[in-house]
What does this fold into?
Amino acid sequence: MINWFPAAMISLLSFGLWGLFTKLAVVHIDSKSALVYQTIGVAIVGVLILSGMSFKPATDTKGLFYAVLTGAAYGIGCLFYFIAASKGKIITVVTLTALYPLVTILLAYLLLKEVVTIKQGLGIVMAFVAIMLLST
It folds into this structure.
């Protein structure tokens, strides 16, 4: 098996649970409060990881900068995800927001000069069609 595959599957399961837990949270509390409590959950995971590193994370300036930008983008995305989840059906919201890899692919192509093969391009088109069919 490919060495990244088990981690990707755990991530898939975790994000699937995240989508469900989001809707359950916003049924009971407002979206901004849900974001705050989600952040506490992320902080708990962060502290556990940090303790496993003996509280000595890497400190490369560029890496630190991009990691902070990652957190900011995640926080903003989560806030608006919670807002959408509180107003719409979670089936539709999670399906539509699942298009986010297309943004990453486009940016990787434009900024990182990563190549998208014809086969991958067809997969992207099929994924887009599948998501559109699921969200209607």
